[in-house]
Each structure stands twice: as C-alpha cells, then as structure tokens.
Amino acid sequence: MAAEFVDMLLFPHCDMHVALDGPALRVAVNVRTSDTADPGRYGLADVTDRCTFEFFAPHNQVGHRFDGLPEIDPATGRVTAATPGVYLFQARWEHGYIVGRLQVHNKITAWWFGIDSITTALDVGTAASPGIAHAQPSIYAKFSDDATGADRIGDITGHRYVTLTPDEPAKLAITPQGRLRGLAETADPAQPTHITGSFLGQTAKLPVRVFDYAKSRPDLYPIQTPDVPHADDMHNVVFVPEGFRDTDEDRKLFDQIVTTTVREMFDKPRHQPYAILEGSFNIFKAFVPSRDHYLTCGFRVTDEDFNQAMPIPFNGKLGSDPGSYTMQELVALVGLPMHNESRFDLVAIWSGQSLKDFDPSKVDGQLIARWRAHEGVGILHARDTVFGLHLGRRPADRFSGISNPVVSRPATDTVSDQLKAFVARVYEFYDFGVTRELTPDPRRNPPELHVQGQPNPGNPITRYLGGLRYAYAPFSAIGQNWVPEVTRFKPSRGLVAIIAYDDVIGGTSFDGHIATAQTLDKKRTLEINYADLVDKREMRRRDPLAPVKPDLAKLVNTVAHEFGHSFNLGDEYEYFGGDGGSSAQTADVEFDNLSVLGFLRAAGEPATSRLIDAGKIKWLELPRTSLSAMLLVRSRNVAAGIEVTIDPRYIGRWVQAKKEDAEVHLRNFAITPDGRQLPLSKAPGQLLTGLKIGDIDESLGTFVLTGAAAPLPEYRRGSAVYVPVKAGDDRAQVVHKKVREFLAQTKAPLNRDLDHVHISRDDDQPVDIAGFFPPCDSTKTIGVFEGANEFAGGFYRSAGSCKMRNSAGTPRVWSEITQDGGAFCYVCKWLIVNRVDPSYHAILSGRFYPGEL
What is the Cα–Cα distance from 737 to 735, expressed in whole angstroms? Predict the structure, then answer.
C-alpha cells in the first residue's frame, strides 16, 4: 500500500437514522492513512472536532430546503434534530469531504439482527500489534410512519442503540461500535458461540463462529501443475469457493466448475494466449465451506414482485424511449423516490431543483412510473459466507473525496452557482456504483485492515491465501505467492479466482487486482421473502428449490476477462456517456491497454480540444518478433560481448539465425510491483539493438551477443532476446506503419462511429486508411479507439474489439470468426505473453497478428 494513502470514514456509517423519541446519536469522522509501522494496517485518527457538517432537505419545496435542518456538534459529534424527514449532508475536513443521509423519525418501534449467523476472524493480537475486531453484524430497525417520505425500515448498525454482549467473553470480544474480535477459534461449527442484543425491552441472540484465516492449511490440490518445486517462479492460479456449503453436492459442483473453466481457458482459441502459455501456469484448487448459500447484497431491492426483485438502482434501461436515462443514471441525478411517493409532475419538480446536468428530454412516462416503484420496504438479510463478499454496496458504505476548491452550503436556497455546486455535492449520495461489483464487505473486513482498491495484505482473504500449502509432500508453502508486496512484483499476484455460489450477475477484480470474484449465472433480479407479510420487517433472499445451475460459458469468459486485470489490463467497455472527467486528467491511466484524453492532448491545444498526440500512446511501438527467447539466468559479460542462456531445446533456431546474420535485440522488461509494464523503459541498460550472434554452445543453450558498446549492462533472468520482424528496411511494430502515420496526421482515434457522448456496447469499426489493408474482421485493427474505462469518450484503447471490452464476443457470420469472438486484442495478448514468458512473442506474432506487414 502507498504511504501517502488518505481517506475519510464516517461512523457509524453514511446512511443513519435517529428518532426524536429515542436514544441519542453521535457521529465520528476519522481520517485513515497507511502511514503506520505495520504495512498490513491503516491508522485511524478522529477529526470530528475539526469538521464542518452541512445539511440539506431534498424533498422540501425549493426555497425551503434549508429550513428545520438537523445539526451535528463537532465538539461531541452529537446529532440534534427537530423535524422528521430525509436529509442529505456533507462532512468537510480541510479539502476532504464525505456525503451521507440522515433520516429523522418520531419513534423506533422494533429492531432485529440483519443476519442469521456471522463468521469473524481470530485476532488475538500481540503486545506490539493489538488484535483488531473484524465482523460487524447488521442491525435493522422499524420506525413510525411519519408521512415524511422516510424509510420505514432502516439500518442502525453501529448506532449503539442496541447493547451487545458476548455470551462467552473468553471466546469473543465486542467493541462499542459492535465489531467482533475472535479470541478462540470455533472448534466445532455445530457449536458456535453467541452474542446477545438488548434494546426496547427486546433481546435476541446471534450465533458467531470464529475462523482462523491465517492458519497453515495443506489444502492446495493440483489441477494442472507442471512445476510445483519452482512455484515461486511460476504463474500460480488458485480457485477457491465462496458461498458453497460443506456438502458432497457443493464440493462436486465446485470441482466441476473448476475443471471445466481450466479446460476451456487453456484449450479454446478465443482465450489465447492462455493456451500457448499453459506450461508456465501451476493451477490449484482449495475448498473452504461457508454457512450459507448466496451472497450478501449491499443494495436494497424492490418488492413489487417477490419473484423478480430488482437491485436499487437497476443498472439498465427501464424507460420506453431508447434515448432515456437508465434507472441508475436517473437515480444519480434526482435521488430515490420517497416512501409512498405521491408527488405529481416530477419532471417539473426536478427541473426546478438546480440538479446538475438534468435533461428532461431523457425522461419518459414509463421511466417515471418505474422510478416511483423503485423502492422496497425491507432490507435484505446478509449472508454468512466464509470470505464475506457482497454484491454492489450499501448506501451506508461510501467513499470520501477531495474538493479543491471547497464546496460549501450557501446562505439561502436561491438559485446560484454556489447552490448548484452544493446540491451536486450532497446528491453524490445517490451514486451507488454498479450492482454487479463483487467485493469484500466492509462489515466483514475492518477499516484498519481493508480499503477498497488497495492491496490490503492484512485482510482475511490474503491471510487465508498466505497460509495455503500444497496438499502432498513436501507440502510446499505456496500461498505467499498470492500475497501482494509493496516493493516487489510477484508473478502470481491476482491469479486468484473466487467462485461465488450465486445466480445474480457479479464479477470483479478487486483490491488492486489481488483477486477476482465471479458468480455462477447472469440473472439481473432475485427472489425474496418477508418473514411476516403484514409487518414487512425481515426480508430474506429465497433459496430456489433447485440448486443453481452454472452458466459455464459465462463463467469461463468472466474468469478469462477478470484475470486480464491481474495482467494490468483495464476494462474497455462503456457504462456512462460522455468523458467522465478525462479531459482534465493529465497523468496517463495506470492500465497498460488504456490511455486518457488529458494526457494525450496534442501540445499547444486548448483544454477543449480533442486532438491527440499519437506519439504519447504507450503501446504504439511494441515490437513484433520473428524469433524470441527468455533468459533463464542473468546475462554474463564476457570478453567478446554478452553471454545469454536460453532453453537448450530451442538453440537450433538461434544457430540458424546466426547463419542468416540476423539482427538481435536484448531487452529487460521492467515490471512495477503492481504489474505495470508500459511504457517500455528507455533507461540505460534496458534495451540493446543491432546485436549479432557470436559463439554458441548448443549443449548449454548459451550464445554470445556482440556489437554492444562498453560498459556492458547485465540483463536479469526473464529478459527477452529476440529477432525483430522486418518490414522492408524498417522494423515492424504491433501498430502498422500506415496506421501510425494516419494517427500522427489526423490526431484523432480510428472509430468510424464518432459518437463519444452516448454509450455503445458494440465493437468499433475503423475508418479507411489509404494503403492499409485491415484484417478480415476489421475491429481487430490495432491503433487507437475511443470508448473505454466505462466511459463513451475521453478514454482510449488499442483495438475495436477485445475480451476486455466484451468477454462473450459479438456474434459474427463466419464460423472461424465466431470461434475467436470475445478474444483478447493483439496488444492485450502481447502484454500477457510479455509478463508470463516473452519467448512466445514470435509464436504470438506468427499465429495471431491481425494483418500483414
């Protein structure tokens, strides 16, 4: 993790509830940093007394949205309120901010645990490193119906309204915030310990099981393991389950999924280059059971149809007009409906509320009707799975931001630039992210050990991976290969596939791409039940009568795509229209296959210009090779030049290259600890060109390269020695010469469709280029195409089609193209090969390059 990491946390969370006739609510704002002595931990510092809290009543009439607002005393964190209703707010600290929602009610009428059992981590701690409380059980409450539009059911987790006590203090400790710290591992899952909750004269018990994630476990079983003794130098893949129970049926299903996924990934042409690199991968599986099937859903769901409950917000079109907003886009702009929504002429209301970028022409009658019904009374119970992954995220779990200049609340609710900026700021609360995201649940991963998007080497998942050993003698400790390190690159980083027992679509590479997770099917709705239809309190996912039948084709495509992130490949699809702030982004995108407008903008062009400097494209000059090999040991400087050692089995090709007087290049590919390869380094000692082959020892696989000027650098193990492809008098690059010339002349991407405002799910066809003959499937042309990183504009990728854009592939007419649908583009193939084994570059160039010289 980076030492400069800083964010803000709001406790108890960002979607709070308080009752006028109820216990007091206190909040705390903490700043979290990675600047601690322990690289696996984050530090928390309370800054509540240095914060400014500003409220807003979004459902009040314009002109009165600053009336009767709640307040928070920075000195104590105490919330005071006088009027029931729904309020948005921001908490500001220096240039940082975090937004939230407070719902004020008259009374709390009932409470319950929002999960039927929970697993927490064993964390006894030491004198130097005190133990940390991990899991936090969700607690929900029902409130009086005050006719204000506030939710009847709310999330009061961490509010300290409910008193929690452990039944066995020697086995479990509980923090005031309600987090659980395991002090003794649960020996028999059938005999859990319990906590007791008390509030409103009601008591309830919750079973708790303590799991030692860091325990050494000989649970790694081989699927394909060509070289276990040298696992530290291999690319190791492991499949682990989430939400699979300890039954013969679940174990059999998991084994079937793993076997099929491995066979398909490493056999089918559409998933190349995994197949040609198969000998460089050790592939394992490890089974660890969960208590529950299915995943926790962070999002709330609609309850108008119990058989097809929709995530809120639904990530798709619900209007009748093709040009209308998606429900997710509309909610992000106008917010959620009030409970029992009854307002008329909503378009007129929204148009007069100073909402940022609201376009009434993108709202139709059907969309409004669906928006009105886009609510549910209850909140889904969480599920007790071993790693605590969840789909989407809760409204309660928000990220902080940085604002420069600071956005503050104006004195009055009258139209002004300051009001528009403030309304846009607090309405950020309604940006709930994508519900298909599958990531570690903050209520199962403590804030001291887990930040979304960071590697988090101390969290439960990485602890579990780090303790895995080979199942057979000598029981090699292979697990540490999957634990990320800050200072060095590990080949196996991110090659972890967590297969989740769920039929709702979900799949993500998470936490700095240290693992991927994916569900078994692609349903967009789910089945629910209420424990009591009259009271409508406890909402649960309904277990179908038949087990989930995995969509294996979808699963294989998803794993192959998500592993692409482990090779530092970014998503190339589009979720949002427009540029997404890319115009002002002066640093390049961290992913090797993507770039951004602000960085690429041609020199001297104004900030509004879309002209790009193709010379800044980091994949523009990737070389093509006709012969390649990887150094097995560090090069050695000898009197005649530089001696390199390759696999002796292939030395005959280099004997022939010497006879042909081939030009040879020697390159050391620098890889950052997080796996970044591009741009290729031009530092001294990274590349030598114009070399010739001297003495060869065929038995040892060594040969001497001559022609380098002193002082001679040394090249590390894993470096590449290769003969470049020649195109006339030039060396051929991955991007064709005619395409490079066209990009330099036009300063524009190759897209035939110039629309960078509206999202497109399609592959992109390139424009015609004089003298250039594209491949039969012209979407495979390598160059620069706009539309990537989830935005329709402002982000650029290398080809019109790629697995990172569409893992399933667009249906084609020709059978040979259909077999290759959903394939990686050539640049992504090149990058994977380069990371795993650059000796395959010549095979890649000869078999898969899309076009001629």
Answer: 7
Phi then psi for residue 323, to 5 deg, are -90, 5
Distance, in Å, from the CA atom of 733 to the CA atom of 782, rounded to the nearest integer, reads 10
Note whether residue 700 is domain-resident.
Answer: yes
Q: Where are the alpha helices (DSSP H) in 694-768?
A: 737-746
Write down the H helix ranges in 393-488.
417-426, 460-466
In 3D space, the residue among 806, 852, 840, 853 whose CA is nearest the CA of residue 825 turns out to be: 806
What token pair was written down for 421?
């900026």
Q: How far apart are CA 700 and CA 704, in angstroms?
A: 12
Other CB atoms within a 10 A radius of the CB of residue 676 amount to 15
Task: Name residues whose C-beta falls within 8 Å of residue 240's C-beta, 6 or more positions apart in sequence.
Answer: 285, 286, 287, 288, 464, 465, 496, 497, 498, 499
Above pLDDT 70, what percent of the chain?
A: 97
DSSP-derived pairing of the beta strands 217-224 and 468-470:
parallel
Residues 347, 366: one domain?
Answer: yes
Predicted confidence (pLDDT) per residue in 72-102, tens digit: 999 999 999 999 999 999 999 999 999 999 9
Query: What is the number of alpha carbons within 13 Å of residue 402 lying toward its C-beta?
Result: 5
Question: Can you give the pLDDT at residue 815?
Answer: 31
CATH of the domain at 696: 2.40.30
Looking at this protein, which amino acid is placed at residue 358? F
How many residues are recorded in the chain? 853
User: Of 541, 566, 591, which residue is a domain's last?
Assistant: 566
Q: Is 660 exposed, middle or buried (0-12, 13-18, 19+ CB in 10 A)?
A: exposed
Predicted confidence (pLDDT) at residue 670 exceeds the cutoff of 90: no
Q: Of the candidates 330, 358, 373, which is a domain's last residue? A: 373
Which DSSP string do the residues of 836-853 spell out, in sequence order?
H-GGGHHHHHHHH-SS--
Domain count, the chain: 5
Same domain, residue pair 411 and 504:
no
Examine residue 443 and state whether it is found in any structural domain, yes or no.
Answer: no
> What pLDDT does 345 receive?
94
pLDDT band, residue 4 (cuts 50/70/90): low
Structure-derived torsion over alpha carbons of residues 269, 273, 276, 282, reported in degrees to the nearest 10: -110
Answer whether residue 323 is part of any domain: yes
Q: What pLDDT score does 239 carry?
A: 98
Tell whether 326 and 288 lie within a shared domain: no
- Full residue range of the structural domain in which residue 348 is found: 314-373
Query: How far apart are alpha carbons 14 and 12 in whole angstroms?
Result: 7
Structure tokens at 604: 């001297």
pLDDT greater than 60 at residue 820: no
Residue 817, pLDDT above cutoff 70: no
Instruction: Specify if 846 maps to a domain.
Output: no
Considering the domain architecture, whether residues 616 and 539 belong to the same structural domain is answered as no
Residue pair 84/148 in contact by the 8 Å Cβ criterion? yes
Same domain, 92 and 170: yes
363 lies in the same domain as 420: no
- On whether both 83 and 190 belong to a single domain, the answer is yes
Q: Are residues 223 and 242 in the same domain?
A: yes
The CA-based angle 234-239-244, given to 5 degrees, is 165
Residue 585 token pair = 């982004």
- Predicted confidence (pLDDT) per residue in 672-690, tens digit: 888 999 999 888 889 999 9
Q: What pLDDT is stored for residue 3 in this prediction?
A: 40
Answer yes or no: is pLDDT of 206 > 50: yes
From CA 140, how far away is CA 145, in angstroms rounded? 16
What element of type H or E holds 102? Answer: strand 96-113
Q: What percentage of the chain reaches a pLDDT higher than 90?
A: 86
pLDDT in tens, 100-119: 999 999 999 999 999 999 99
Query: So what's the pLDDT on residue 236?
Result: 97
| Residue-wise pLDDT tens digits, 369-398 | 999 999 999 999 999 999 999 999 999 999
Question: CA 805, CA 811: separation in Å to the nearest integer?
Answer: 14
Any idea what DSSP says for residue 752? Answer: S
On whether the CB atoms of residues 208 and 117 are closer than 8 A, the answer is yes
Can you spell out the DSSP letters for 723-737? EEPEETTEEPBSS-H
